[in-house]
């Protein structure tokens, strides 16, 4: 079936006087507040996410028709708190198929803001695409006065129409800013301007600025085509004086095969409290342990005398370190190959 003609597709093509060919942008909708509805236009908190379909999101932004020919697919319609590795795997496969389709010029994904940074980073390190892959979202539901979704969607499609964005890996467009996948971090639970500005470009960024975002070579893994399920990886956080009881529970679960890797969010320079060391040593050597800093910036390094299956998250925050460990284990990286995968992160 030609792109744009499927049962969930819409051909919003308008001939452009400036270009020979109107770009074909594939929109993948997954839910979130951008597709959320509330009982009143002034209610920006008591709403349900993931209510409107992809067609309704497009219909709310008539100027999109002048930018691109859009085909729309509803992959899921979820509040992103309920998304996780099974959704990432399905989404990555669909994005890869669209990236490999010569009839598609760019891909836009609508998503909830709550776990956007995890999905975006997973796609960034597992999809190989030479064309733009742009995620977007909203903090206010679609029914709100001054909803932020329509302009975010317009700007995401506009960015996906720019071939230069295809060199930058996965990007997100939120509130007039372009965020590279590794820099996406939600920092406020409800403000419209909820995402960290660190590492952001404005949506007016030049092509040269977009090119400069190009990820380092070898920064992706290829997931095996037959992979059915991503490995289970747990994330624990150390708070001042907190007990390592949960580590011991995970050590038991990992012996039963229910945990394939562990990430620990640690204070400061990924510093391990003395009380946690014996418990972490109970984790089997077959279960990689990634030590990440809770600081949310900088590069952490742990002790050189650490066991071989302990890895540094480096510049990755604990959430992204977990995503990277899931992707690495999913691609069957073990031992020195897994270590190199983290060193490249
Ligand atoms: C969600 O993450 O799906 C709900 C919250 C949001 O999109 O802002």
Descriptive notes:
The chain is of the alpha/beta class. It folds into two domains: 24-211, L-asparaginase, N-terminal domain (Rossmann fold, 3-Layer(aba) Sandwich), CATH 3.40.50; 233-343, 3-Layer(aba) Sandwich (Rossmann fold). 26% of the residues lie in helices and 17% in strands. The strands form two sheets. It has a seven-stranded mixed β-sheet. Strands 8-9-10-11 form a four-stranded parallel β-sheet, with helices on both faces. Helix 3 crosses helix 4 (116-126). Residues 1-18 have low confidence and may be disordered. The chain binds succinic acid.
Brief descriptors of the model:
seven-stranded mixed sheet, Rossmann fold, 2 domains, disordered N terminus, 345 residues, alpha/beta, globular
């Amino acid at each position: 079936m030609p792109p744009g003609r499927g049962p969930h597709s819409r051909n919003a093509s308008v001939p452009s006087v400036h270009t020979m060919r109107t770009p074909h942008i594939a929109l993948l909708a997954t839910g979130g507040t951008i597709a959320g509805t509330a009982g009143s236009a002034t209610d920006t908190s008591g709403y349900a996410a993931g209510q409107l379909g992809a067609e309704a999101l497009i219909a709310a932004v008539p100027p999109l028709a002048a930018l691109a020919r859009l085909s729309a697919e509803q992959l899921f319609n979820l509040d992103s708190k309920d998304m996780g590795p099974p959704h990432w795997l399905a989404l990555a496969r669909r994005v890869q198929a669209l990236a490999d389709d010569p009839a598609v010029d760019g891909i836009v994904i609508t998503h909830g803001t709550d776990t956007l940074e995890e999905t975006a980073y997973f796609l960034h390190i597992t999809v190989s695409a030479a064309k733009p892959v742009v995620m977007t979202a909203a903090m206010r539901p679609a029914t709100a006065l001054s909803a932020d979704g329509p302009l975010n969607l317009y700007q995401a499609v506009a960015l996906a129409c720019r071939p230069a964005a295809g060199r930058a890996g996965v990007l997100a467009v939120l509130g007039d800013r372009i965020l590279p996948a590794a820099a996406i971090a939600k920092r406020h639970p409800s403000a419209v301007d909820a995402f960290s500005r660190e590492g952001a470009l404005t949506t007016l960024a030049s092509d040269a600025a977009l090119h400069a975002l190009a990820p380092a070579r070898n920064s992706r893994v290829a997931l095996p085509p037959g992979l059915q399920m991503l490995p289970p990886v747990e994330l624990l956080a150390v708070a001042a004086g907190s007990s390592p009881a949960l580590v011991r529970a995970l050590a038991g679960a990992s012996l039963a095969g229910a945990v394939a890797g562990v990430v620990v969010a640690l204070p400061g320079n990924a510093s391990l409290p003395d009380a946690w060391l014996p418990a972490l040593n109970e984790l089997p050597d077959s279960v990689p342990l990634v030590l990440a800093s809770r600081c949310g910036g900088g590069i952490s390094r742990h002790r050189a005398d650490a066991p071989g299956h302990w890895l540094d998250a480096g510049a990755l925050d604990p959430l992204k370190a977990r995503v990277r460990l899931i992707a690495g284990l999913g691609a069957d990286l073990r031992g020195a190959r897994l270590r190199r995968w983290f060193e490249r992160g």
